[in-house]
Write a structure and sequence with these properties.
This protein is 3% helix and 47% strand. The protein is mainly beta. The protein folds into two domains: 2-36 and 381-471, Jelly Rolls; 39-377, 7 Propeller (Methylamine Dehydrogenase, Chain H), CATH 2.130.10.10. It starts with a strand and ends with a strand.
């Protein structure tokens, strides 16, 4: 009989559902699961200290990657990180955020004045303007720069003049300030044609009125907001975030629960507010994934992965000091040869986004403050399905299993028991026939299968397994 791997739904009991108990080291695709690559470090990418924020933009055909520590702003090249400004007073508890406005890159850490520089002279980093308040959150909405948590007021939203990011005095042009009357602390701002202001317990849409009021603030969600600022990540019109009720997606009009009865209870059980500032999240635009780290002591060591195309989840062990959306910087073959001595010494694929300029890329800093991407060899993968009665009311004599995958060296384990209250016993099999069958002799009333693929193995999909079982006795 054929068993197809379903959704990873750890919130559900391990019996009587068609999903998975474990889906680790993989991400969902349209007919199964695909491997997730391991971390690969960028050339000379070690930062001087913990990263509290990072970003990238492209100007004049060149890609610029930046990172912030508590005290410095850095730019990255294959020669390493270069300090653009020192003497800052940032902290991981607030972090740092980047926004580009035309040819300017704007940086805020919530404490120091907002910084600016242009790609033509990044070393000439300076304060944006004396009229600009300190901001924890920042985005570009139409022609305005909009900031949240202005001047340390958790309910204050400020915006620059239209078309002028350096003018912030309320009443100067269209610059202004608003205090939100309810909803709790502001936890994020998302830009675009309209603004989305996330608070702890609500979401407000900010629409340009083209009259004296300048902005209209409409509540689009009551009692659902973002409780973890670093869980916010956007792609197109979708913004993903963690609320007190679980994971949500907002398209600017509606809010949809994406983790309910799937992963919410599992994630929130791991959620420790002590480490909330160590979280980070990013959208991988190539694979169509929202990736969020589980809050833990820095650096975090586990991520949850949501495919918004397939609306399915998975997980993986990834050490991440900070996940961020980036652009890859191009390096030609001559440059690679000069850096590594010879092309055979390059530690990752030549097709890696680390070497192809201008491509949207998920990047991160690992626990050693190293910049890199998930482009290395495949990480170990493990999939475990739910406990099944292959023959209802009777033991099933399991004779063989054939995994449905193009991996050449998986390990098949049978977890078996004779009652739901009995702890399953695991038996692993590694001998595989030429036809892909694993022969065995097991007899259980309840069984589940684990498929493990080792790190570094070359494969592209896993879909489920065929299992041969005959009727046995009553348990």
């Amino acid at each position: 009989m054929r068993q197809i791997f379903g959704e990873w739904r750890p919130d559900q009991p391990s019996h009587l559902h068609d999903g998975l108990i474990t889906a680790d080291g993989v991400y969902p695709i349209a007919n199964g699961y695909a491997p997730l690559p391991q971390f690969a470090a960028a050339v000379n990418g070690e930062l001087a200290g913990p990263c509290i924020g990072a970003g990238a933009y492209r100007a004049g055909g060149s890609v610029h990657v930046f990172a912030v520590t508590a005290s410095n702003i850095y730019s990255y090249s294959t020669a390493g990180f270069t300090s653009l400004k020192s003497g800052l007073s940032g902290a991981a508890a607030v972090g740092a955020r980047f926004v580009n406005y035309n040819e300017l890159m704007l940086i805020t850490n919530g404490v120091d004045p907002v910084q600016k520089f242009s790609p033509a002279s990044p070393s000439a980093t300076s304060d944006l303007d004396a009229s600009c308040p300190t901001l924890r959150f920042m985005a570009v909405v139409r022609g305005f720069v909009v900031g949240g948590y202005a001047d340390e007021d958790p309910l204050a939203v400020a915006w620059s003049d239209n078309g002028d990011p350096a003018t912030w005095t309320p009443g100067s042009g269209e610059a202004g300030l608003a205090i939100l009357p309810t909803g709790g602390d502001i936890t994020g701002v998302v830009g675009g044609e309209y603004g989305l202001i996330f608070q702890e317990s609500r979401i407000v849409r900010q629409s340009y009125t083209q009259d004296d009021a300048i902005w209209q603030f409409d509540e689009i969600s009551t009692d659902i907001g973002c409780i973890a600022p670093w869980s916010l990540a956007s792609y197109g019109r979708l913004t993903f975030f963690l609320s007190s009720k679980g994971f949500m997606a907002c398209d600017g009009i509606m809010v949809e629960a994406i983790g309910s009865e799937k992963v919410d209870r599992t994630f929130l059980a791991l959620f420790d507010r002590t480490y909330i500032d160590n979280m980070s999240a990013v959208v991988d635009p190539v694979r169509g994934l929202y990736i969020v780290s589980v809050p833990s002591s820095k650096p975090t060591s586990r991520i949850f992965i949501y495919s918004f195309g397939e609306q399915k989840w998975s997980s993986a062990s990834v050490t991440a000091e900070r996940l961020f959306a980036s652009l890859s910087a191009s390096i030609d073959l001559d440059g690679l040869d000069a850096i590594y001595g010879n092309l055979d010494a390059v530690p990752t694929s030549l097709d890696s986004v680390l070497f192809r300029g201008g491509y949207p890329a998920l990047m991160l800093f690992d626990g050693l403050h190293r910049l890199g991407a998930l482009t290395g060899p495949n990480m170990p993968a493990s999939l475990v399905d739910t406990r099944k009665e292959l023959i209802v009311g009777l033991k099933a004599r399991i004779r063989s299993v054939r995994p449905l995958t193009d991996a050449s060296s998986p390990t098949v384990s049978i977890y078996g028991s004779n009652s739901l209250s009995e702890a399953p016993t695991e038996t692993a099999y590694t001998a595989r026939s030429a036809g892909g069958f694993y022969r065995m002799r097991q007899s259980y009333n309840l069984s589940s299968l684990k498929l493990a693929i080792p790190a570094g193995a070359t494969w592209s999909y896993v879909q489920g397994y065929d299992i041969e079982a005959a009727q046995g006795t009553r348990p």
